[in-house]
């Protein structure tokens, strides 16, 4: 509903009580990223450990959620099990519209349930159901069981964790509606630490539209721009997978734990190959006509006499990189099989693939043995990886429990730091050059979506560190505005500041629209302050040796320039994170 | 009379743009539920989607069940016209619909498809069509 304040539902799992609070500050903090930071400052304790039951797990939507197309994302914020610091993760599916129609701007979960439970909230409902029978169940089984346990098909979102979240894996994800995820930085482990197996959000209310003709006019213009121009076509055509062959061609696709950046085996895992041989259908987040989610088809013979089963697996650029090229896989069907295993365990695909790539090289180098890995790991061989993914999810032995806390943590123990492909967290799939390596190493979410660095690397650019850092900061501020609305970052070309202001004005948020130029910077600084208060030391963030050995289309990495840029960006972050 | 037909639901991506358009344009609401067409999975998102929408029964049992004349049969080809002023929100139409195509909101107002076709242009995959009954184009185009 359109309202000047934020309507926040607070759920305390310890006392099993809820409370609705009206929080002011819309004109400054907008919603989404801004609201999540505001609520963390209000309810969280950056000095306490991430697993302290009092720490909040926050889900926030924005003023435009549901009112305009592609305003279909939810921001989840929490103290990350990965580094113990404040972070954000974003997901779509039906989560955003479900929160909108459950009539809450944010859901804040604190406390810890005495037993495994499912939280079910809606506009007219609040229930905490004991569900110890779901503990240990994989992501798909959990989703199916909850679908039958609760009402609301079509107008609800089911967010759940798998075994990885239960065992405290630092990169356990929260699966949203089967094919989307709060993927990175370990939100799944936060749910697990609260004994919270799943959250079902019922979007069971509806609202009047704003008065006047402006809303209909702006909606129509935006919808037409999104659906009748070519601006979004790459996202539904090959999808993000279309970048796989392009980056391989540019010598920027990490192969075999980043021992190479291009490989002739690309044809088996290119976006074109997936579309031709494996693409079954597309699906979409609620409220998005683009339909960028690509579902691949995997047929598996599981028994003699032609006994087959089939699986439907969502693919994208990042999982093809992390569970494909990074593991030396050149068979798309094999990659789909690994993606399916990762989904079941409730692991983040990027971190899992990069962690196993490191483990494979560590095994080759003799830094670990099969006593640790429990299974042979060879680049290009799917079966060993399938076994290892399960070990990672359930934390079978000390080795996998260490690896599940982060590749660099395991690498330090087993002396393999030089070849751990970690840029703040396990890298995203862009061996594009110095700019991206520095950006991902230091940026707020350690996400490839924090800035356009990987894109900048793909074009000739001056080695002007202050200018590049200024670009990072500006980019982050503008993306922060969009993730406060909360729009999909794929729509960033459509939702210019002017467009966002039109949309906000059409809903009667004139004061929010007027302050948009300064809000991005304010939210950016608050997020950095929260990160600093929880222990971030950007000057100490190092880039592993492996990155100095990379060769891209531009040639070898300029390590001196990379170090200059790293220091300049770290200094800027220190400045942004200063207490006001 | 032309009827809204969800002719090609195997193409549906579950974006719910049709439901949102119906609520927005016909009922002046922001909703994915109080709409004449609603999209749900047919047993989990891995199983594809189905539309809950009026099938244009002829004669329509919802109109027959309506005690006040708020719902009356369209001139031809099934489906109903709605006069909201006459509705007492008793919900008898909801119970009478054999396919669950009518819903009530929190104030018990009923919502059903009126076959106006305003949702059709919002479907990005051309799942929906306004056509004479039995005349929907099963295969409309051949992909390149």
Kindly describe this structure.
- The complex is a heterodimer of chains A (580) and B (144).
- In chain A, helix 20 crosses helix 23.
- Among the domains of chain A are: 6-202, Aldehyde Ferredoxin Oxidoreductase,  A, domain 1 (4-Layer Sandwich); 230-423, Orthogonal Bundle (Aldehyde Ferredoxin Oxidoreductase Protein, subunit A, domain 2).
- Chain A is globular.
- Chain A is α+β, with helices and mostly antiparallel strands and 580 residues long.
- In chain A, strand 19 and strand 20 form a beta hairpin.
- In chain A, 40% of the residues lie in helices and 17% in strands.
- Chain B has 144 residues and is an alpha+beta fold.
- Chain B has one domain (3-131): Alpha-Beta Plaits.
- In chain B, 14% of the residues lie in helices and 21% in strands.
- Chain B has helices spanning 17-26, 61-65, 92-96, and strands at residues 3-6, 29-30, 37-41, 49-53, 71-73, 80-82, 103-104, 110-111, 128-131.
- In chain B, the strands form 4 sheets. Chain B has a two-stranded antiparallel ribbon. Chain B has a two-stranded antiparallel ribbon with strand order 3-4. A two-stranded antiparallel sheet of chain B has the order 5-6.
- In chain B, a hairpin with a 7-residue loop joins strand 3 (37-41) and strand 4.
- The longest helix of chain B is centred in the N-terminal third of the chain and has 10 residues, at 17-26.
- Chain B is globular.
- The model of chain B has no long low-confidence stretch (mean pLDDT 92).
- Classes of the chains: A alpha+beta (580), B alpha+beta (144).
- The A-B interface holds A 66-67, 69, 97, 100-101, 123-124, 143-144, 147, 153-155, 177-179, 203-209, 216, 219, 223, 227, 281-291, 293, 312 and B 13-17, 20, 23-25, 28-34, 38-41, 43-46, 48, 52, 105-106, 122-125.
- Strand 13 (207-208) of chain A pairs antiparallel with strand 2 (29-30) of chain B.
């Amino acid at each position: 509903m359109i309202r000047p304040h934020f309507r926040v539902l607070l759920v305390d799992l310890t006392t099993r009580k809820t409370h609705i609070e009206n929080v002011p500050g819309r004109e400054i903090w907008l919603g989404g990223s801004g609201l999540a930071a505001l609520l963390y400052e209000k309810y969280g304790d950056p000095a306490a450990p991430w697993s302290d039951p009092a720490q909040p797990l926050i889900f926030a939507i924005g003023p435009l959620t549901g009112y305009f197309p592609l305003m279909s994302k939810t921001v989840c914020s929490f103290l990350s099990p990965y580094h113990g610091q404040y972070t954000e993760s974003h997901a779509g599916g039906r989560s955003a519209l479900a929160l909108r129609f459950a009539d809450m701007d944010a859901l804040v979960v604190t406390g810890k349930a005495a037993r495994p439970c499912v939280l079910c909230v809606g506009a007219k409902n609040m229930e905490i159901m004991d569900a110890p029978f779901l503990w240990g169940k994989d992501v798909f089984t959990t989703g199916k069981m909850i679908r039958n346990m609760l009402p609301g098909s079509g107008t609800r979102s089911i967010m759940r964790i798998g075994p990885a979240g239960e065992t405290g894996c630092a990169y356990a994800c929260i699966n949203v509606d089967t094919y989307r995820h709060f993927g990175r930085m370990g939100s799944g482990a936060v749910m697990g630490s609260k004994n919270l197996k799943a959250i079902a959000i019922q979007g069971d209310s509806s609202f009047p539209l704003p008065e006047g003709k402006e809303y209909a006019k702006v909606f129509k213009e935006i919808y037409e721009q999104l659906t009748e121009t070519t601006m979004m076509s790459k996202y539904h055509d090959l999808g993000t997978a279309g970048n796989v062959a392009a980056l391989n061609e540019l010598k920027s696709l990490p192969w075999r734990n980043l021992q190479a950046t291009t490989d002739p085996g690309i044809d088996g895992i290119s976006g074109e190959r997936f579309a031709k041989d494996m693409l079954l259908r597309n699906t979409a987040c609620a409220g998005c006509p683009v339909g960028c989610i690509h579902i691949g088809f995997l047929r598996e013979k599981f028994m003699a006499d032609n006994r087959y089963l089939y699986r439907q697996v969502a693919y994208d650029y990042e999982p093809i990189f992390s569970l494909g090229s990074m593991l030396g896989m050149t068979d798309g069907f094999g990659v789909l099989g690994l993606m399916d295993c990762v989904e079941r365990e409730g692991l983040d695909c990027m971190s899992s693939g990069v962690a196993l790539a490191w483990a494979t090289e560590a095994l080759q180098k003799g830094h670990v043995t099969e006593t640790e890995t429990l299974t042979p790991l060879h680049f290009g061989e799917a079966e060993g990886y399938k076994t290892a993914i399960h070990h990672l999810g359930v934390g079978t032995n000390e080795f996998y429990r260490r690896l599940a806390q982060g590749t660099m943590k395991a690498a330090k123990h087993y002396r393999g730091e030089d070849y751990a492909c970690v840029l703040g967290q396990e890298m995203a799939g862009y061996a594009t050059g110095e700019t991206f390596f520095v950006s991902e190493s230091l940026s707020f979410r350690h996400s490839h979506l924090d800035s356009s660095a990987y894109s900048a690397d793909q074009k000739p650019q001056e080695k002007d560190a202050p200018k590049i850092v200024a670009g990072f900061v500006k980019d982050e501020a503008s993306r922060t505005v969009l993730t406060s609305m909360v729009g999909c970052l794929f729509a960033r070309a459509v939702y210019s500041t002017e467009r966002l202001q039109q949309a906000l004005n059409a809903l009667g948020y004139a004061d929010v629209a007027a302050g948009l130029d300064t809000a991005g910077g304010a939210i950016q600084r608050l997020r950095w302050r929260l990160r600093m208060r929880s222990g971030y030391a950007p000057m100490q963030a190092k880039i592993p040796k492996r990155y100095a050995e990379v060769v891209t289309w531009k040639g070898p990495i300029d390590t001196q320039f990379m170090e200059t840029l790293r220091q300049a960006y770290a200094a800027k972050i220190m400045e942004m994170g200063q207490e006001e | 009379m032309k009827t809204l037909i969800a002719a090609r639901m195997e193409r549906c991506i579950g974006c719910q743009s049709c439901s949102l358009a119906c609520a927005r344009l016909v009922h002046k609401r922001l909703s994915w539920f109080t709409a004449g067409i609603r999209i749900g999975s047919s047993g989990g998102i891995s199983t594809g989607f189905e539309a809950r929408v009026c099938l244009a029964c002829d004669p329509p049992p919802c109109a027959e069940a309506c005690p006040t004349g708020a719902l009356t049969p369209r001139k031809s080809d099934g489906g109903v016209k709605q006069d909201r002023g006459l509705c007492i929100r008793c919900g008898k139409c909801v119970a009478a619909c054999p396919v669950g195509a009518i819903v009530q909101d929190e104030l018990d107002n009923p919502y059903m498809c009126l076959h106006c076709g305003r949702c059709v242009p919002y479907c990005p995959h051309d799942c929906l069509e306004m056509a004479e009954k039995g005349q929907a184009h099963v295969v409309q185009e051949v992909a390149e």
